User: Fold this.
Amino acid sequence: MKIQYFLIPFLVVFSAAFLTSCSSSEKIVKNPVDNYTRDLDKYKTYSVLLHDMDLDEKTFSSDVYKHQYKFILPAKDTTGGRVVRDSLSGWVQVTEKNFNKNLDNMGMELLSKNEDGKISKIPSPPGYNNYVGNQRYGSWQRNSSGSSFWAFYGQYAFMSSMLGMASSRPIYRNSYNDYNRNYRGSRPYYGTTTGGKRAYGSGSASSQSMNSKSRFKSNVSSKVSRSGTGSYTRSSGSSSRSSRSSGSSSRSRSSSSGGK
Assistant:
């Protein structure tokens, strides 16, 4: 049965600082995830994904670090059935420490609450804590080679793109079981690494599928370094500013010397 959706704007009330574009004059939020835990408490389940990241490097003043989040929340259709809807926050200015801490987590789920009311703040692949493996939304199927993969029911097919899934990148049961047994509730899970790229997180095909025009891809990735395992690192803003200032001074002195 095809689901018909309400033609009512999707409204969620958050603190004003979270839903407006950020500028350098706005308050820097230490950890927005802590605030969302409070603001989303009325929902039985939810997922908050790190949708995008941006970095504005300054030469003499403080660098500006920003996050944008995607909320996946429950809703109802006209027949009273279960659906989910997604919504984006505005740009949120975060601390340098928070920004660097999440350099690997583009597209990852940073906060979730499941149907048992358990809250998780450990980075995990999108959908793993609420939707993948949940028979309300889909089931495990087998492909021609016998591998088991997750497939959403027809009325929830839109969730594949919402969570960065594609026919070429299915969620295999072995990967999901690995997460459940060895990572859930204890440490981040980025899936297997192939050709220097992880299955999930920054730079992965999954995160690019969810946000192909991300500022992380166009602006941030060129300012950070990447290891052979696919993780990202960045030197502190104060060091980079010092280096850039020093470089500018050196060029100035060199130019002056050349004119003598």
